[in-house]
């Protein structure tokens, strides 16, 4: 019974302490506290004559101000709880006749004092080392914008550029050097010499490279609509097979080639040309997308 009464008193004390934090709406985005809280600082922090009566959460530094006000409040709560425990221990010490009861009362008083000293000591030590440690200033934090660029992922054999559409005249939006047609395959001028050298070396080794490179923006958009239920803007759209957004495909930039197998269809992992490319393409600046034996680009994407 005594223990239940004690817990009830603790609960009442906590409700009384936290009641001032409960807020009621006011105009201008401010909140009126049900009871003023002791505070330090000037009027710009909402502290008037040492009392805080309103709090504006819409200010830029509102979270930092709130945390700064909560630290002394929590220390105050610790002090009140310590006093309650000391009073409880004193009552128990004076009203009991048993040695164990008096020992328990003394232990309660000792623990309350140690807990209060621990809370105050931590604050004093941190404040002595550097007072700024106890001040939370979040106003200096800047809002950051994260841009996620979706690179081309595996597009599947159904999307392979096995028939080259030819080189458009002049530079394109994604290839300033202009698209060049080499051995029936259109690539960006920035990689044209590398592909020309690779084609010559492959031919000497008995591998005739065939396929398609450049894909126009219109072709990429049409492919995206076909495979992604008409979507051409959402990078998280459900596409079967996966299809890059217009402007993201290495094919649209003229920086990727899908090679054709001599036996028909896309190049297979068992074809001689694939073996030759694996061992020699990197010398010419081309890398394979591991999930697609036919797809080779400047970065393997």
From TrEMBL:
Residues 190-297 form the D-alanyl-D-alanine carboxypeptidase-like core domain. Keywords: Membrane, Transmembrane, Transmembrane helix. This is Peptidoglycan-binding domain 1 protein. GO terms for biological process: proteolysis. The chain crosses the membrane at residues 70-87, 108-126. The keyword Transmembrane applies. GO terms for molecular function: peptidase activity. Gene3D superfamilies: 3.30.1380.10. The keyword Transmembrane applies. Pfam families: T4SS_pilin, VanY. InterPro entries: DD-CPase-like, T4SS_pilin, VanY-like_core_dom, Zn_M74/Hedgehog-like. It comes from the Bacteria.
